[in-house]
Amino acid sequence: MAMVNGEDCCVKVAVHIRPLLGDERQQGCKDCVTVVPGKPQVQIGTHSFTFDHVYGGTGFPPSSMFEECVSPLVDGLFQGYNATVLAYGQTGSGKTYTMGTGCKDGSQTGIIPQVMNSLFGKIETLKDQAEFQLRVSFIEILKEEVRDLLDSSYVGKFEAVNGHVGKLAVPGKPPVQIREASNGAITLAGLTEVFVRTQKEMTSCLEQGSLNRATGSTNMNNQSSRSHAIFTITLEQMRKLDPSVTESAQTEDIAGSDCAKRTGSDGLRFKEGVHINKGLLALGNVISALGDEKKRKEGVHVPYCDSKLTRLLQDSLGGNSRTVMIACMSPADINSEETLNTLKYANRARNIQNKPIINRNPISEEIQRMHQHIEYLQVELACYQGGGASDEIQALKEKVSWLEATNEDLCRELCDSKDIDEEVAKEWEHTLLQDSMGKELNELNKRLEQKESEMKMIGGFDTLALKQHFKKKLMGLEEEKKAVQQERDRLLAEVESLAAASDGHKLPDNHLQKLKALEAQILELKKKHDNQVQLLKQKQKSEEAAKKLQEEIQFIEAQKVQLQHKIKQEAEQLRLWKASREKELLQVLQRKSEEAAMATKKLKELLETRKTSAQEHSGNLQGVQSSERSLQRWLDHELVMVHVHEVRNEYEKQSQARTALSEELAFLRREALPNSASPPGGKNGHSSKARRKEMEKQQKMEEEAVATALSISSSVNSNSSLKHSADETSDPLSPVAVPAQKQLKYTAGIVNTRGPAAFDNHAWKMVPIRQLSLAKKQAIISQGGKLWRWRRSHHQWLLQFKWKWQKPWKLSEWIRHSDKTIMRARPRPLPLP
Ligand SMILES: Nc1ncnc2c1ncn2[C@@H]1O[C@H](COP(=O)(O)OP(=O)(O)OP(=O)(O)O)[C@@H](O)[C@H]1O
């Protein structure tokens, strides 16, 4: 079921101030609420609030509440909008009284009885134009539970339970299940919906439900309840078609909203409901349960609702419907704190934005409507047939056949559009895949570049030569070290022998110095050696890194080859798919052209038969002429209707394609911007520019085609004669000039045009579009839009095909139908098609 969005609107809030009650006066309560005269403004203490309406107290009389606040919602109901009316306020503030569900007070002046009056009054007025079906449900939400107040298993007697008044339900019946649908909507499984036909039946449902409602006593009011209640009326209307009244006039009558007209939902089946809620602190509880944890901690009674219930209550607050909240309040000073809270909350509720919607199902409803119309005409036809043959019968027969054909067309179109969708989806999928694979390839190329440059850095040194150099140096150092060590050992031995010789005497200075110098040299050599070892280790590491890089490069290259192969394969698959599709279409084309030839042949035979029949029944010449006129009239109508229908379709499809192209173009422009920093001749910049150009060119072509379709559409609409249509006949005896077989050949990228003599019998010519000069193209467009460009898309090709050649086989269907009629009508003197 499609949903049509209406305009956003805020929740409307009307304050209803009840008078001081007798009890309150006796207790010496004072009126603490003031209404600013002539304004919807309420003052309590130092606080001042402005609402949409204020009733009661010194404000407007409550009697005008229904007309001003609720009646427009009932009107909207007949246009397909949901509506919600909520009563909100502290216990004893007058919600039951205002809604009129108490079955005592306000039962006549309350909102719900007035809604019923208005609803049934409207149904009575519209009953000739539409069929209505009404259902009601009544639920009570008490803490975490939903109770079905119209459940017949409830017994109507009450008994005291734990000091409270409660009711008994017959065991066995499962409670109402709160479920969440896949679209997120909250549904109540197993809820009773009662079909009602009269106001009395609806009133009795309301009364029964109210009686069933759980009640409990409180200190303030022993009739009050702690639960929320929602009474829902569902209205379904099915429009009856009156053939004597134009469709647009009927649309005005019933679904006269602008929205309905705009979307073409006229005459459709609407499904909508009005929720009328009488609930105790319904809104306040919902809000508290959602977030007011602080209040709960302070000990304020805030019943928890589980999340589904909360959403159910929120749905009742509007969401998709037009909502009016009536904030009921007591003027007594003892209730001033609660009253102030009510006003504060009501004031906040005015900021809630709703989005009212209309529910509809255009395609199936349109087909259903047509079926109905056909049935209606058939019944009418049967009535007429009882009274003998006449022109009217013929006209009706024609209308029935035309409707049947249009219906078939619609169904076929539905199938076609599925094919087209499949094709578009396939191309789209291919483009996406190619895109993502292209990106992947780019990424691989980048990585490869990076790895190769890293490799260059490592490979920049001649690793082998370096290694040998290091080795050599190391060996030299080793030798040097050895020599120094030998020298040291020799010196040490010398030192020792000297020491022994000196026998405790000091060593000569030159020996000591030499010894020190040798030790320093050894140390230096050791350092050098260590450095060399370190360098060798590093070299080893970089070799390993280079090896790893090499492997990575090889891997990336393999991936690249694989991806390129995949891209090729994918493109090949698409090409094959397209080729097989083209083959299929060719076969269809062939078949259709054969049908077209057959249709011409049959039509000629039919005309021959008619001529012969006219000669045979020369005495009844008038009848033949009337039959011929009737045939001609039908043909005119049929052909013009086919034109209008197809041109509209073509226009819509071209518009959609143009929108998609514009979006893609915008996207490409955005894409191109960040790339502008790269050099203009750069790979990315260049391809992006070229793509953009191509898109712009393509879009221009689309716009031309749309303009063409529009010009044809207007020319078709402004002229109901067959003569305007270039592919129709100039021979009055042959209503269809079926083009020669060769015309059905096609090549991609051609235009369909014909010679300069406007009314000769020249065949259409297929000319490659490139061969046409600009002037010629413009001339063709100005001649009434005979320019079509066939492009790569099959679906466009299909459309061209349908546009140009559909009529002959339509005729063949019609002729088949006519043949049957002739067979049936044989005994009669004048066989009519
Ligand atoms: N506008 C009014 N004029 C006269 N009496 C009223 C009006 N509104 C309410 N009352 C009286 O006030 C009393 C309480 O009203 P009501 O039962 O409608 O309150 P409530 O908000 O539904 O209470 P609860 O939430 O406890 O069910 C009833 O006796 C009712 O008759």
TrEMBL record:
Keywords: ATP-binding, Cell wall biogenesis/degradation, Coiled coil, Cytoplasm, Microtubule, Motor protein, Nucleotide-binding. CDD domains: KISc_KIF4. InterPro entries: Kinesin-like_fam, Kinesin_motor_dom, Kinesin_motor_dom_sf, P-loop_NTPase. The keyword Nucleotide-binding applies. One of its GO terms (molecular function) is ATP binding. Residues 393-609, 644-671 form a coiled coil. Gene3D superfamilies: Kinesin motor domain. GO terms for cellular component: cytoplasm; microtubule; microtubule associated complex. Residues 671-708 are annotated as: Disordered. It comes from the Eukaryota. It is found in: Cytoplasm. The keyword Magnesium does not apply. Residues 693-703 have a biased composition (Basic and acidic residues). One of its GO terms (biological process) is cell wall organization. Residues 10-352 form the Kinesin motor domain. ATP binds at G89, Q90, T91, G92, S93, G94, K95, T96. Homodimer. Belongs to the TRAFAC class myosin-kinesin ATPase superfamily. Kinesin family. KIN-4 subfamily. This is Kinesin-like protein KIN-4A isoform X4. The lineage of its organism: Eukaryota, Viridiplantae, Streptophyta, Embryophyta, Tracheophyta.
